[in-house]
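The instructor's notes for this session suggest beginning with a concrete chain rather than abstract definitions. Hand out the sequence below and ask the class to guess, before any prediction is shown, which regions might be ordered.
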Amino acid sequence: MADNKVSSSAGARPATPASRIAALIPGILLCIGVAGISASLEGVERHLFAHPYVEALVMAILLGMAVRSFWKPSQRWQAGIAFSAKQLLEVAVMLLGASISFAAIAASGIALLASIAAVVVIALAVSFSLSRLLGLGTRLSILIACGNSICGNSAIAAVAPIIGADSDEIASSISFTAILGVMMVLGLPLLIPLLHLSATQYGILAGLTVYAVPQVLAATLPAGLVSTQIGTLVKLMRVLMLGPVVIGLSLFVSRRGGAQKKSSVGFFRLVPWFILGFLALATLRSLEVVPISVVSPLTTITGFLTVVSMAALGLGVDVRVLANVGGRVTAAVTLSLMLLLAISIGLVHWFK
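After discussion, reveal the predicted structure:
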């Protein structure tokens, strides 16, 4: 009887901070291992081709999915995998703000800023509508719309925790977006002679349509330094749209959730802490409180944390779910990208 009481008492004992941290370590180390392999594969790409066509971020989620298809992690690994997929991802999104300078964006001109904002808003609305018409769920449609319209995988990763997307939805949107992202890098330079684009026009086109900043660099490399500089600037403006979109989604999701409850919801419940951190770091960077020498290390940390998070997401994905939605997701992403490309081509002819 005494033994039963002791064991019952031991079983009810709350976990200490040290025990919680210890429970996270196996899963985090597993995710870091997958991320390290992915980063090494990207390094091989850089060595062979001078720039990566498939980023470590994409490789991590695909490699994690491959591992998950052969082995389902037991409970011992789950806490660390879940922590890597959510908390580490939120930290990465926050640190992304340190690479944004409001001053550089404002100096590019009101017309270009307004045009980029309009393209993003139109692309978001139409991409979401197309996805819903194809029968995809609301959360997956939001992920696809944000990925296509703003900044690919980074937008998907930032929006996912806001709308409560699960691993299958995130992996579905990222996997198919990644495939088209590589195709854009390889095929977009062909439009330079076909459409008689100047270096400035092509830079704007690449910045508006290519998903990731490294991919913008790869896509503009054949067109020269001017295209690369303009493409990167336009791309960063698109990235900046992530802040308002995420805040808007946070307000929308909180309002829908709060419809069943009449209690008031505070500001910090409406706007996630990592988005506030993102905006704070962007402000500090714009005021030069965060020196330029710090930006590169922070960007490296951000990139690695994101790769670790994507590895965690891949490890939680059931490939059979992807097979069920693959055709519709591919159609939604492809049609959305074609629309974005058409709008962007029309815009760049205006910027002669």
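Then share the key points. The radius of gyration is 21 Å. The mean pLDDT is 78.
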